Amino acid sequence: MASFADILLPVPIPRLFTYEVTAEHVDKAEAGRRVIVPFGQKKVLTGVIVQTHGTKPENYEAREILDVLDDQPVIVDQQLQLIQWMASYYMCTPGEVLNAALPSGLKLSSKSMVQKHPDFDPDDGNHTYSDSEWKVVEALEEKEHLSYDEISQITGVKNIYHLIKSLSAKGAILIFEQLIEKYKPKKERRVRLQASLENDLLALEALFQKLEKKEKQLELVMKYLREVPVNELKERNQLGLSKGEFLSTGLSTSSLGTLVKNGVFEEFDKVISRFGEPKKKEAVIPELTSLQEEKLSEIHGLFEKKSTVLLHGVTGSGKTEIYIRLLQQVLDEGAQALYLLPEIALTAQILRRLKKVFGDKIGIYHSKYSDNERVEVWNGVLSGRFPIVVGVRSSVFLPFNNLSLIIIDEEHESSYKQYDPAPRYHARDTAIMLGQIHHAKILLGSATPSVESYYNAVYEKYGLVALETRFGEVQMPETALIDLKDERKKKRMHGDLSPGLLQAIEQTLEENKQVILFQNRRGYAPYLHCEDCAHIPKCANCSVSLTYHMYRQELLCHYCGFREPLPSHCEACGSAKIKTIGFGTEKLEDDLKVLLPTGRISRMDYDTTRTRSTYEQLIENFENGEIDVLVGTQMITKGLDFDHVELVGILDIDRIIHFPDFRSHERAFQMMTQVSGRAGRRSNNGKVIIQTNNPEQPVFHLVRTNDYKRFYQMEILERESFHYPPFVRMIRVLFRNQDKQLVWETANHYLKSIQTSLGGHRILGPQEPLIARIRNQYHQEITIKLEKGGISIPKAKEFLTQKMEELQQDKIFRQTSVIFDVDPQ
């Protein structure tokens, strides 16, 4: 009886695909293993088996699995459950989720290859061939197939596509796709004695006599036997020694080659971990204060009743120590734990603390790691090598099979939300569902919880534990406001710094303490402005001004990457009177180097932290006191812990407060509170200075008094009055097209199709978003608010998806991309 497999493929089609499993593969066809299958006319894809069965589908088109790639499943059942839930909840397809879940190293890629056409006859007289073409034909006589790179090297032609097209048209070659697996295990070259010498002392004695006059060869044998003694040869010889370490003391490479040739030694490759071999390490668990012990007991008590607990701990209260104790308990039980962080920048510092306790039991998973490293962590989770994983949002996709605890640190952070491409998921909410699938406990931690999470805690959906004092009874920093309108009126500003902030920086440096300055805009200046005609250079592809980056001497779009050289004259009127408007982190750094010539100034933003090593080096330099003033964007606000920071300056916060979004006050409060929390963590001398044009804003008073509860009470009343989360579920429907009129017509047509059933009171738009064009695509959006309890949200999502599918059956409207963003941030 024929066997069939239902395969999940990484394509945006909402279904599984059934393939026949031939006798060759039937023993290996198992749920969770990767397979190679044909798709369409020419494509070959890597998919994952969801289930096998003996039922031939109706109208089945015979298609066979080409190969099974794995000896063991690389996707576990819990992952498949999570993929299905994410596809349903976030209104995308399971294939899109799979594409995001699998690290690139586990996806096969294809490479175009060329082979000789079996019917090719160079002497048929129908065609003539150039010298380059003859070189390819002759090379294919000797080699079965060639890659495009090899053809380029053989012919010396850089652009070979015309050459390949010509040979194909003449019937000389065939082009095919060769599948290549991306993951390559790391291998180490090792050396060992031939097996015949392992347990034969007489043979070893004969060898010593033979080498008596060959000093260099004898030295190599003696060195090996010092590392692997004769009485342990049989047990340890198979493992051998690293060739690099074996020869590191200056022993002769050529002598080793001779011994290998003469059958004394043999060389072999051993697959090794990129993270080193596991080492036994005694865990050094940090002591908890009596208050931390009390809160840990509260957490355990609540975990007996609820699966999710919110730990609301002020900045510097010692939440990490509580996390460590919980992680150790998971290890003691032989289970797995996931520690989620919102930013890669945070992992470097947190990891140093965790490594002191857990050593190499920790796997790290984020995008700054190479494809091969991420596959090794993936396999390490499967094998049990890494019972604890620390990572950013993509870590929720790892193949846990015994997950007991999920810690979501800085749970309020918008960085947990994936924007593009699908699935547009929120890692916090996805991790909570992951915990439910595994029956694991979830701990949310934050000094400034999201309004939604705190609402769930207040109404006892989650447990709530409050840690309201700093570790070691250190006081919260003192906060001062500086009125920029007044300072500018008196003409006392030093560039973008007020005299009060500059004086505080100078005093802090005199005391050999450190300063953090927060400006949530990178680049030198937000835009350039012509003083004569008021022209502002704009992006060619997006509805935004170009940001000036001085170190590159260019204008850059932060949305699509478009760039152009810094102009010397206005492109509109030709005037040379071009000036910068506003300031970013780059200009702030530049000004400080002039104002503080002896200060050591550094900058931490996307431009200066493109690689993993630059993140880690910047943080390490600041921790070691090699930087006096660190200027940065919001990546410096998130959970970093420095001993000697006494002053924090917050600049340009008004732009965040007045941003047209219902979460703007929440974000401003969170950012200011979080970055303020970096000050005075080891002393009572911490100070925060906020520069603003409107010091009467109520949110500033709440930041000064660190009154999260009062902020929450004010915010929740507004959310309820104007029907925003947590009282409603929001779905944003985004329409994209290069034709401005067509995108507007598509959005309006969709609105009419849903309006009657959903009711106009639940729908806002269509309207242009704040940035109406990105990458030459015009945008329209519709926002849908679905109240909890008043409507079935799953059925509403099905209805919206159905109407989208109906819309795209129209050949005019299908040209427009329609994107669902559930729970937009």
Structure in a nutshell:
34% of the residues lie in helices and 23% in strands.
Structure write-up:
This protein is α/β, with parallel strands linked by helices. The chain has six domains: 110-181, Arc Repressor Mutant, subunit A (Orthogonal Bundle), CATH 1.10.10; 195-263, no CATH class; 290-471, Rossmann fold (3-Layer(aba) Sandwich), CATH 3.40.50.300; 478-521 and 585-718, Rossmann fold; 525-582, no CATH class; 728-822, Alpha-Beta Plaits (2-Layer Sandwich), CATH 3.30.70. The chain is 34% helix and 23% strand. The chain has 26 helices and 34 strands. The strands form eight sheets. The chain has a seven-stranded parallel β-sheet with strand order 14-15-13-16-17-12-18, with helices on both faces. Strands 19-29-28-20-27-26 form a six-stranded parallel β-sheet, with helices on both faces. It has a five-stranded antiparallel β-sheet with strand order 2-1-4-3-5. Helix 13 packs across helix 20. The longest helix has 19 residues, at 740-758. The chain is globular and about 90 Å long. The mean pLDDT is 89. It is an enzyme of class 5 (isomerase). Component of the replication restart primosome. Residues 565-735 form the Helicase C-terminal domain.
Q: What key phrases describe this protein's structure?
A:
6 domains, primosome, DNA replication, 23% strand, 825 residues, Rossmann fold, 34 strands, 34% helix, Helicase_C-like, Arc Repressor Mutant, subunit A, 7-stranded parallel sheet, 6-stranded parallel sheet, nucleotide-binding, alpha/beta, coiled coil
